[in-house]
Design a protein that fits this description.
Structural class: alpha+beta
Strand order of the largest sheet: 1-2-3-5-4
Low-confidence stretches: 1-7, 349-370
Pfam families: DUF7134, HATPase_c, HisKA_3
Catalytic activity: ATP + protein L-histidine = ADP + protein N-phospho-L-histidine
Distance between the termini: 35 Å
GO molecular function, one term: protein dimerization activity
Helix content: 55-70%
Enzyme class: transferase
Largest sheet: 5 strands, mixed
Order of helices and strands: HHHHHHHHHEHEEHEE
Shape: rod-shaped
Radius of gyration: 43 Å
Number of domains: 2
Keywords: ATP-binding, Kinase, Membrane, Nucleotide-binding, Phosphoprotein, Transferase, Transmembrane, Transmembrane helix, Two-component regulatory system
Number of strands: 5
Amino acid sequence: MSTTSALPRQPRRLGPRGAAWFDRGLALGLTGLSVLSGVAAGSLAWIGLGLLQCAPLWWRRRFPVAVYAAVAAASALQVLVLDMPVFSQLAYPVAVYSVARYTSTVPGALALVVGLVAAATAAVDWTSPYVPPNDHPLQQVVSYATTIGVIVLAAWALGTLGRTRAAYVDALRTHAEQVAREAEQRAELAASDERARIAREMHDVVAHGLSVMVVQADGARYAAAKDPDVATTALGAIAATGRESLGEMRRLLGLLRSEETGTRPQPGLDDLAGLLEQARADGLPLTVRLPDPLPAVPTGTGLVVYRVLQEALTNVRRHAGPVRDVEVVVDAEPGGLVVRVTDDGRGAAAGSSGSSGSSGAGGSGRAGGGLGLVGMRERVRAAGGTLATGPRGGGGFEVVARVPV
């Protein structure tokens, strides 16, 4: 998933180049009109003030405080030079807007306060030529000051609103980017978990298939000299097991390559009978007790029970040595299933060659370089259950898994 495609459309704004050209046009336009008005009035003061007040707007986005200071200083100079409003004073509210828009709250507030004081000062300056010195035209001064103050206040309010809106939009965009990144990370973690699950499935398939083939090959080798028919049957079982294991491994590798779900259903409780029949055909002396009928359980629970039983039987073939009886029990208890696989083989004496992993509660596991017990424990733990493995007191080995439903 692309982060850019997941984000909401950003409000239309001028780009850096467009903003620069806008500021240049604004500065040149106001300066040009101020100079023309000064030429029309025949006043060099108007022309000079037009240049001093309007030209700094060229840099109003890059240096808003400095531009405001320059415009405010030129406006203060106007009080000393002229006693009437001029066209170039339009630069002052633009400068106030720029400070409020492109800086923080404090510079904007200071510009507003200075602007309101300047409004009162300008009102007194502009009305004084028309009123005798001893009169106090408070009403006229207040009217002028209010008008100018409203213009300054509006410029400050628009700038502040623009700044807060831009900050809000940026915060929304940052949040959307964060949400998109988190979604991508969750998807990657889910894919990683799925690959790990497929890798465990592949380990179970390969280990089971190879153990069956080794047992059949040993039997065929011993029987070849005495009974060729038995050897032929064993070789056929080896070939069938190899083809089935290769097909299953190709399917799992295809999942890893395509990152799609397989079309073949995962094994469950209904497949236990076939697994046990195959174990009997491989020569394991099984005593089996399954619930009749098999309980209806979720697909994930059935898969965990199947894989635990498959791995336990594989460990018996590989590590138990000669066995007289292997007992397989699946019991349905309130709230879950219990899987118990016990054998009367070498038990703890197989510690140097068995699958790796600790026992969990109840004993020490068969240690070694494999991943059988570790894989079983991970599966059962992921399903919320418990696994206990270890040697039996009277000899042999036991695997007990409790899987909640």
